[in-house]
Amino acid sequence: MAAHYLDFERPIADLESKIEELSRLSETAGPGAFDAEIQALRDRAQDLRKEAYANLDAWQKTMVARHPQRPHLRDYVAGLIDEFVELRGDRKFADDQAIVGGLGRFRGQPVVVMGHEKGHDTTTRLKHNFGMARPEGYRKAVRLMDMAERFSLPVITFVDTAGAYPGLGAEERGQAEAIARSTERCLTLGVPMVATIVGEGGSGGAIALAGANRVLILEHSIYSVISPEGAASILWRDGARAKDAATNMRITAQDLIKLGIVDRIIEEPAGGAHSDTETAIQAVGDAVEDELKGMAAMSAEALRKQRAERFYAIGRAGLQ
Are residues 46 and 72 in the same domain? Predict the structure, then answer.
């Protein structure tokens, strides 16, 4: 897949274009003809990447969180879950592929894993509805959480959605009720639950899978009650002011951990998770494993109490 560069990455794109050009020339000029020049350009590109990603503003982080080559649920499942068996359908209406979930082994431990899947190309994006779930997706999530509790299996979720699907059919089938039921089921689980915001965490569509004991977030992911574009259209009647909204909404991982909304930031490779997906996926796996170990000895009642206190604390802080 061809590299996709964001606006602030243009200087890096120019350098990497020169690297490709010199590499092609070296094929005709002979082995090692431009090795020193190529290595110098690569070093410069890496320095620029580190510098750019160390100073991202909220809107730039939003663009990184939405990067089309950022790893999605199926990438995390492929990299972290052995013997994965997908379980489909809500047993009421249909199977919603915006949320994918099932059973598997996470580093030897049986788990229930699920999350939003956006897709990587036109075909898969349409199949997964760009990660925007309908009511049947959230009802499938409830079904999987019920199964997890029945068999005492930890739940791992990966959150990456702009929000729940706002279509007429979804509303007619009870979108708000389905999101509420899924959120409620997260909060009442008697097994450990770890949620990771791996891209966008948009509104109720995200919290329905993120009412966990521990909520983790990748360094350049975002988590918000509404998209910056949506907030701008409401506040200023101008969606073009999304950058202003992103800055004022405090949606970045660094803001969220100060507010107590998330519990842990997972560092991304220089250049974002899309620049080195394998390293990013393993970093997420290490963090999730660490959190699950910390809850291994907790009783069902203790897990519910800890989860409740976590979210009560957010509400209390908001009233201060």
Answer: no
Angle value at C-alpha 39, between 35 and 44, nearest 5 degrees: 150
Mean pLDDT for the stretch of residues 135-144? 97
pLDDT in tens, 160-210: 999 999 999 999 999 999 999 999 999 999 999 999 999 999 989 999 999
Residue 2 lies in a domain: no
Torsion of Cα atoms, 116 then 63 then 255 then 182, to 10°:
-20
Domain interval for residue 224: 62-319
Same domain flag for 46 and 136: no
pLDDT for position 320 = 58
Are 40 and 70 found together in one domain? no
Tokens for 126, please give them: 């349409």
What letter does residue 252 receive in the DSSP assignment?
B
DSSP state of 31: T
Residues 95 and 29 in one domain: no
* Axis crossing angle, helix 228-235 with helix 242-249, rounded to the nearest 10: 100
54 phi and psi angles, rounded to 5 deg: -85, -10
How far, in Å, CA of 208 to CA of 200, rounded? 14
Query: pTM for the complete prediction?
Result: 0.90
* Segments in the chain forming alpha helices (H): 10-29, 35-53, 58-65, 73-80, 122-127, 135-150, 168-172, 175-188, 203-207, 228-235, 242-249, 253-259, 277-295, 300-319
Residue 1 lies in a domain: no
Q: Are 32 and 137 within one domain?
A: no
**Three state DSSP letters for 178-210:** HHHHHHHHHHHCCCCEEEEEEEEEEHHHHHCCC
Query: Which amino acid belongs to residue 307?
Result: R
